[in-house]
Amino acid sequence: MIMKKRIIIYSFLAILFGVFIVVYGGIDDSPGGQLLGLIAVIAGIVGVVKSRKKN
Length: 55
Known about the structure:
- It is elongated and about 40 Å long.
- By secondary structure, it is mostly helical.
- 91% of the residues lie in helices and 0% in strands.
- It has helices at 2-28, 31-53.
- The mean pLDDT is 90.
């Protein structure tokens, strides 16, 4: 139970960090930074979905 909550918290943090990187990459005009942010957001969403399906 504690591990599932930890995974969900880390996944939400990955989503927030990814959004930050996408916005910062847009301001800095770096497509590589935006891509890394997008990958972090997708990884966070996948983590949330997988942890929710394990019920």
